[in-house]
Amino acid sequence: MKTSKWIWFVWLLVVLCYVVPYGVLSDMQTWYGSFLFWSLIGVLIIGANIFMTKNFEDY
Questions:
Q1: Fewest C-beta in 10 Å: which of 30, 37, 47, 58?
Q2: How far apart (Å, rounded) are the C-alpha atoms in residues 51 and 4?
Q3: Cα(26)–Cα(19) distance, rounded to whole angstroms?
Q4: Higher pLDDT, 58 or 17
């Protein structure tokens, strides 16, 4: 099963969920910059989970 590239992609997104809002967007006084970023990352993680599990079969 070739899910290792997707697992690393998900871990990269998890790290970005901490680095970008608390690092890059820390000077932004409003909350919607981080909310938009986390919403987009959430959609990407859902997509990565779909690709990781599409080859699962019942045994």
A1: 58
A2: 11
A3: 10
A4: 17
The answer to whether residue 59 is domain-embedded is no
Give the CA dihedral 4, 36, 31, 19, nearest 10 degrees. Answer: 30
Instruction: Answer whether residue 24 is part of any domain.
Output: yes
Instruction: Residue 19: name the closest of 41, 48, 43, 3 by CA.
Output: 41
Q: For residue 1, give the amino acid letter.
A: M
Tokens in use for 58? 């019942």
* Strand residues in the chain grouped as ranges (E): none
Report pLDDT digits (tens) over 2-57: 556 778 888 999 999 888 888 887 787 777 778 888 899 999 999 988 888 887 77
